[in-house]
Amino acid sequence: MKTIPTENAAGMVLGHDITRIVAGDFKGPAFRKGHVVQDEDIPMLLDLGKEQLYVLELEQGLLHENEAAKRIASAAVGKGLVLTEPVEGKINLKATCQGLLKVDVQGLTRINTQENIMFATLHTNQEVHGDQNCGGTRIIPLVIAEERIREVEAICGQHFPVIEIKPFTACRVGLVTTGSEVYHGRIKDQFSPIVQAKFESLGSTVMRQITVSDDQELTVQAITDLIREGADFIAVTGGMSVDPDDRTPAAIRATGARVVTYGAPILPGAMFMLAYLGDVPIVGLPGCVMYFRASVFDLIVPRLLAGESVTREDIASMGHGGLCASCPDCRYPVCPFGK
Questions:
Q1: How far apart, in Å, do the first and last CA atoms of the chain sit?
Q2: How far is it, in rounded angstroms, from Cα 260 to Cα 265?
Q3: Quick one: 195 and 273 in the same domain?
């Protein structure tokens, strides 16, 4: 560091915090270490009694922390995110839309193995909303060799995008409600309103609901009718267990759909089914979706609405973290469930 007159400090990097004190009102940093002095800052610095400043000299081949963070974030970020202005050397990545957060975990890890670089994100494959903070990056020192940032940019190029948001598709959902007790009016349907609200919160709409008894042929007919009427997503509620009257899995198979899985290593949600009839996903939703705020629905359906093709291997990998802790006050997705 060197000392220079404040009047000559424009464009220089502060080597220390400058404190501002207002009696009885405020005490804190007016300018922080690492701040690049602007022409308009000089009158305030003089008012604070700073006629001399300690500044850092950026030698050729070195980058200031703000510029370094901008370059890292710009190289990593994909669609659906915007960069904030740097604050104390850190840049945040904020969502511009509701959608599914996707993080290339391998690429992110490679970035963080580089000395004096940090890049933190939320967990991948979770729903995020507009203006939500999804990540942040900075260098650890005030300055860094530009060569190091070029190395990070090369990593980002190999894993691009390291972080992005896939917006949800606004699907026309066909809802099939199974169960003789509901079909004959013995009990009120409490399942469908919850499923409908979940889909609506993700930007989709239930175009039509068909209620059938525990009859395989009627369930098959309901599914195929809804697809013929324009549904591009089918959700079937009820009848997903192994009881003799629960025939939903057999009905989904009988449509000719390609079954990805019947069963998932997720609690709540073990009796979940995923299949495709052509390009239309069909989900068989177990009763736990009605009772738990977070369940298999919240781990898999957002991925389908983001246009992802969820495989059996994807679902198998969810066993690690797939046990809901049943906290008294559910804070999902700010919890380990599904992570």
A1: 45
A2: 14
A3: yes
| Structural domain count, the chain | 3
Which of 115, 150, 167 terminates a domain? The answer is 167
- Tell me the two tokens of residue 232: 């591009």
pLDDT of residue 244 exceeding 60, the answer is: no
How many helical (H) and strand (E) elements, i.e. helices and strands, does the chain have? 11, 20
Mean pLDDT of the 9-32 span: 84
Half-sphere exposure of 281 (CA within 13 A, CB side): 25
Partner residues linked to 137 by β-bridges: 91, 119
pLDDT 10s digits, 297-337: 999 999 999 999 999 999 999 999 999 999 999 999 999 99
What pLDDT band is residue 280 in, cutting at 50, 70 and 90? very high
Report how far residue 165's alpha carbon sits from residue 181's, in angstroms, rounded to the nearest whole number.
Answer: 42
Q: Are 286 and 327 in contact (CB under 8 A)?
A: no
What pTM was computed for the model? Answer: 0.87
Under 8 Å between Cβ of 99 and 306: yes
DSSP 123: P
Asked if residue 81 belongs to a domain, the reply is: yes
- Give yes or no for a contact between 2 and 55, defined as CB atoms under 8 angstroms apart: yes
